[in-house]
Amino acid sequence: MLDPRLVTLAKQLVNYSVAVKPGDKVLITCGDCDPSFVACLVDEVYLAGGMPITKYSMSPIGLHVARQASEDYYKFMFKINKPLYESIQCSISCGGELNKFDGKSIPPEIMKTAALINKPFSDIIDKNKVRWVGLDFPNPSVAQEAKMETEEFEDYFFEVCNFDYAIMDKALTPLAELMLKADRVRVVAPDTDLTFSIKGQLNRKCVGHFNIPDGEIFTSPIKNSVNGKVKFNVPLNRDGKVFTDIELTFKNGKVVKHNCSDNKAFEHILNTDKGSRYVGEFAFGINPHIKEPMVNTLFDEKISGSWHMALGKFIPETPNGNESAIHMDMVQIQTPEYGGGEIYFDDKLIRKDGKFVLKELKGLNAEILGRQ
């Protein structure tokens, strides 16, 4: 029997997240996720008057190809896929890796080559204003990351994904307005004292239109304004390699020093291109139902009481001029259990130990937003 929650989620992705319109061509890219969910997505696209185009690939096959792939292979795949990406109006990406370490054996040089050759895909999506959303479908591997039983994680997944994002949208408005007026941001936490400017920068509320689950607000710092040091206390899984205790030192916007659990592999990422040592995003995480890390960026960057920044390319809605083939999010939780921390706008305390302190922002704290 079909789980009705799959239908609810499919309706949300098709009708709310990407808002399919009659005549839209919708690319549905699927990894290791439930085929019955893909069928729900297809049904909802047809009901909305769109044309579903499915790309279904299992990770073991993709990995087997990638381990032996050459630069010519990636150039050829780009050539044959480019017309497809230039033709779509919407994109729904449904992942769900069977093993979070998949990809670990792929040489860094191949990953760098693939990233550089495939970068124009994201440029096409940006240029054509393709409406997109991504999610990681629940499976035993993702449940293990969350330290939950599979059925328990499925219940949790549907709770955080089927959130009423219209309520979250309204609650984020005061913070969005405050960020538009702010100039200097300072982040203080254990082994962290970081400053940068967001003066004149746009921001974007993430309330179910980009990623599911959602729950953040992002902007991009002035490219050369980032100075100081930061230590991220949430592990990062990047292409099957897990990095812990990432420490970065910035000077005039650029990472000039780093330290983590695998410095050699991290150095390869930093050397991807000229923009990979600069920051493309700064964001607050505010999803009230996500409280603990699970080494899955789609979830971890939304943790209530957290903030994150991304090295590499800016998000088109908040440009800062930093072009790159990568966009790598790193998360710091500032709740008391994780060492606490403070965030200031122009020397005014905005959030302390993961809780917003200004009256107009308290509706974003988990104990209030989570009751909605």
What would you say this structure looks like, in words?
There is one protein chain. The protein has 11 helices and 20 strands. The model has no long low-confidence stretch (mean pLDDT about 90). It has helices at about 5-15, 35-45, 60-70, 70-85, 110-125, 140-145, 150-160, 165-180, 265-270, 295-300, 365-370, and strands at about 25-30, 50-55, 90-95, 130-135, 185-190, 190-195, 205, 210, 215-220, 225-230, 235-240, 240-245, 245-250, 255-260, 280-285, 305-310, 325-335, 340-345, 350, 355. The strands form 4 sheets. The protein has an 8-stranded antiparallel sheet, covered by helices on one side. A 5-stranded parallel sheet has the order 2-1-3-4-8, covered by helices on one side. The chain has a 5-stranded antiparallel sheet with strand order 7-9-15-16-17, with helices on one face. With about 375 residues, it is an alpha+beta fold. The chain is globular. It has 2 domains: about 5-160, 3-Layer(aba) Sandwich (Thermophilic metalloprotease-like); about 165-370, no CATH class.
Question: Summarize this, please?
Answer:
By secondary structure, the chain is α+β, with helices and mostly antiparallel strands.
State the low-pLDDT regions, or none: none
Overall average pLDDT: 92
The strand line-up of the biggest sheet is 14-13-10-6-5-18-19-20
Sum up the overall morphology in one term: globular
- Helical content stands at 25-40%
Quote the distance from N terminus to C terminus.
30 Å
Structural class: alpha+beta
As a whole number of angstroms, the C-alpha radius of gyration is 20 Å
Number of helices: 11
In total, the number of strands is: 20
Q: How many domains?
A: 2
Binned strand content? 25-35%
Characterize the largest beta sheet: strand count, sense, and whether it forms a barrel: 8 strands, antiparallel
